[in-house]
Amino acid sequence: MPIALFALAISAFGIGTTEFVIMGLLPEVAADLHVSIPSAGLLISGYALGVVVGAPLLTLLAARLPRKTMLVGLMVLFIVGNLISALAGDYGLLLTGRIVAALSHGAFFGVGSVVAAALVAPDKRASAIAMMFTGLTVANVLGVPLGTALGQAFGWRSTFWAVTLLGVIGLVGVALLVPPQPAEHNAGVRAELAVLRRPQVLLALLMTALGFAGVFAAFTYIAPMMTEVAGFSAGAVTWLLVLFGVGLVVGNLIGGKGADRRVMPSVYASLGALALVLAAFVVTAHGQVPAAITIALLGAAGFATVPPLQMRVMDKAEGAPALASAANIAAFNLGNAGGAWLGGLAIEHGLGYTAPNWIGALLVLAGLAVALVSGALDRRKQSVLVRS
Fold this sequence. Notes:
- This protein has 388 residues and is mainly alpha-helical.
- The chain is 85% helix and 0% strand.
- Helix 1 (4-20) runs antiparallel to helix 7 and helix 3 packs antiparallel against helix 15.
């Protein structure tokens, strides 16, 4: 793999760390800034909103820029956002820093996926995308636990200083190692927006949203599920999250290898496996060993969907893939928010802590149904072309 992919992965590691590490620092942030835990929780929601807004907006605004220039600019924005967070003396400024950093998130992964795919031979594109996303998955295994420990030992601002440094390292890596890539020859707001009117692009975005709604319907409530149902101690949850993170890394790499061979069969297989794991989790959540195994499998099956879904969007957005690729990252975050909301609704209505698992399975099955429809449309089009 080209060394430029490691520069993209380091940047992804920093972005992934800043997205998720706040979850482990909410008590410290709330106490220091004199706000409630629910108010501190809005720092997570604000970040997600920034991703959803920033992904299409910044991609459109910079559509005519060379891709490397855009990536450098996005990393500068990421650094500025985390610098604001590190210096924040009040809640409002911290929320501002979170949103500024989030604006770069979706556009970076969207444009970065296009750049990564262009660095390798056509039959290695999905693996190249998976390599970049490895930075995001490793952030869950190393970045988040280490960032949480750092913040608990030296104050939450120290974590944001560390992430700012990661951003600087990523920026230098992108500037020095990523080769120049021009913008698409027909790039522009009109060309980029046009791809979002293609039915197959919209279907691919819907697959992503439904698939990750299923993952986060369950994962959002993993802590109470493990303590109240499986019987783990609160301290064991950290190690269960590490298991989930290891699953993410493995699944991401497997998904990349599979998508290099055939994209849509990989989509079918990964979504099907994810639905089975979530359905099984309804039962396995009642025992500690099976629950721990299922958590790792959930991470693996969940992120095995990422490379093939990202490739599907890029393939169907041929000619102007940057916006569609960034929109797919926004779809991930919309799915995360929607799945968490539905899972919480089930718990509030007294269906129990395992209810989010079967709700997640149903959401993923809906995503699989969309994928089957999309594949059928491909076969119909190919059949028409053959007859003509």
